[in-house]
Amino acid sequence: xxxxxxxxxxxxLTYSEPGRxxxxxxxxxxxxxxxxVLKLGGALGIFMLLAYxxxxxxEWGRNAPGIGLHWLTLGATCLFFGLTWTRSFKRRWKSLTLxxxxxxxxxxxxxSRATGDPESRFVAIMLCPLATAAFVSWGTRWQLAxxxxxxxxxxxGEYLAPIETPFGTYRWMGLIAAVIFAQYTAIFIGRFRxxxxxxxxxxxxxxxxxxxxxxTMAHDIRSPVAALSGYVSLLEEANISPRERTDxxxxxxxxxxxxxLVVSNVLDYYEVQEDDVIPxxxxxxxxxxxxxxxxxxxxxxxxxxxxxxIEIARLPAxxxxxxxxxxxxxxxxxxxxxxxxxxxxxxxxxxxxxxxxVEVTDSGPSLSQAELESLFERHSKNExxxxxxxxGLYIARAxxxxxxxxxxxxFADGRRGLTLVAELPLEAQPPKARTP
Length: 436
Hints:
Radius of gyration: 37 Å
Mean pLDDT: 81
Strand order of the largest sheet: 4-6-7-9-8
Helix content: 55-70%
Number of strands: 9
Distance between the termini: 41 Å
Shape: elongated
Low-confidence stretches: 1-23
Strand content: 5-15%
């Protein structure tokens, strides 16, 4: 279906005629599904009317009382469900459906008056709210309007075209019960549809996230892999000098180090997006972890001709998630090393307010205030991922907050350089209970 003003969303379609505001005609996928179900109910309704007509003719002959009203009702029903296939019907399908049902009720009141049968009008009016609750997904408000219409129409029929019967009270009780049952059915179906829609939306979001995750990993790994391939090709040349070979080996080591960090962060990023960053605290010596991370990052700093200075005070034993603690420090150091072209990077660690404070200061270029404030935010899909360590800062913030700590960034002295700070409690807070 190609029409002007068509907009396909996750759950809705909006159509608008040329030259008219889109708000004049909004057609959603929910409306489309409701109309399909209404058409299905229409086929069943026409079949029942034919059966009703055939039975009356069998009992009373071709001149059965109210036979003309029977044919009029059948013809109008066929016409109505024929109109459901037209575009103009879509504009007012709920109100037109309600009016048609009111017409059906009126015809059955006249037919029952002609035949003197009080059962047909009662059954028809009672079935109308039940049928709309089952076949017309138009919401609780329109279903309530249907209920009120049925009750008023039955009252009008009993007053204007009464048929004596000793069971009038029972019929009223049955009709009221049917209306209430139909209303609760509509409420239940509405809630079920909303819940189902939300679940589908969550699945679509998860699928988009996984697609983005794969694209992120592929993008961040593609360049290092290409670089590794180029370095290896150069190493295979026979006339390469020992100095050039040493330089290429250093470049290969640096690229592999970055690739390892990128892959680890992308996998952690999946946990962050799934709200699954739950620390597993255990007794550990933070001094040992800091020393191991510093030693590993010092190799990367030397490859970039940088100096890594370490100033670690003696820290007490703590109860933190070792992997999270290591990843927080490594990501802060990796970012500082990646953005610093020359000079030094300083790693400091000390106690502050019953927490372990880890600071990483570099001598890299200055940042704007806006860049500083968004440093730990999730990177945009369209952002240049040449600075892949930015993702690491987002991971570091999520892991620090999961342990009950925090991270921040501030300008170094003279607004040149940057200081990253992570404060972690001596004991990670227990994870909050997750809603099932």
